Amino acid sequence: MGKVADFLEYLETERRNSPHTVTAYRTDLEQFALHISPKEPEKADAAEIRAWLGSRAEHGDTARSIRRKISSLKSFYRFLQREGCLTANPMEKIIAPKMSERLPSFVTEPQMERIMERMESEEDSFETVRNAMMVETFYALGLRQSELAALRLGDFDFGRLQVRVLGKGNKERMLPFMPDFRDRLLAYVAVREASLGPVKPESPLFVTAKGRPVYPMLIYRVVHEALETTSARKKSPHVLRHTFATHLLDGGAELDAIKELLGHANLSATQIYTHTSIAKLKKIYQQSHPRE
Questions:
Q1: Bond prior to 38 in cis (omega within 30° of 0)
Q2: Annotated catalytic sites, by residue?
Q3: CB neighbours of 173 closer than 8 A, spacing ≥ 6?
Q4: Where in the chain is the domain with CATH 1.10.443.10?
């Protein structure tokens, strides 16, 4: 696995990919290496790669999962070519399976209002206030889970109503927020200080009851419980990011502006939000059709 290790190091040090991305590449390449063992991955041919992808399909991997594995192998073999370890790239003969289009899952505006009202009405313990603030922060800023976990109090400029967010590839972006959001965030900070002591600018914004940074499973659990009564197909933090983008689009925001707010590298990633909610379609239909 020498070349695989070199490739993963390249992703971490030169490409500066996130730990989550590097872990995904590592998992895919370790699975492939196990399949063709004792042969090294860098010596595999297109037939062996197809056989492995076929075996993954038989194990129940979705088209999306297989496309990701193909992407991992493509990156790996391109790296080997740049390093002069390969003359021919076996991935040139591999065709990715087609993937069915699914609209992003999101929460309707009335449902979102009910979620926040319910969470804000719960007992004012540190954890309940924190949970409500985490959900509102996802919805107000459209953050990824890793971005929310990385927030520090010092990232917020409460005078200018903006926050600095560290996104994928360590790219920074500045996001605006509303005065009401600022007031609720400062109220959360006051509750946290009353429970755990002063909050320094460099301290993580969201922490556990023991003062440690929140972790992915905790974040997921809080959001999943908050979305339990909604019609969203999924109940993950990313649903709140989809909800943020969908509500902006329904409110008249330009796609280019949504792209910048989400931190997408190109507009194609944002275009999944050009779907329109059924509620909006019904409203347009009722207002526009000549036969009411």
A1: yes
A2: 144, 168, 238, 241, 264, 273
A3: 164, 165, 167, 260, 261, 263
A4: 109-283
Report the CATH fold assignment for 2-93: DNA polymerase; domain 1 (1.10.150)
How many Cβ atoms from other residues are within 10 Å of residue 72's Cβ?
A: 20
Mean pLDDT of 90-112: 77
CA dist 236 and 220 (Å) reads 6
Judge whether residue 124 has pLDDT over 90: no
- CATH: 1.10.1240.10, 3.30.390.30, 3.40.50.970, 1.10.443.10. Which one for 109-283? 1.10.443.10
Amino acid at 99: M
| Tens digit of each residue's pLDDT (9 = 90 or more) over 132-176 | 999 999 999 999 999 999 999 999 999 999 999 998 888 899 999
Span 79-86, average pLDDT: 88
User: What distance in Å separates the CA atoms of residue 88 and residue 44, rounded to the nearest whole number?
Assistant: 11
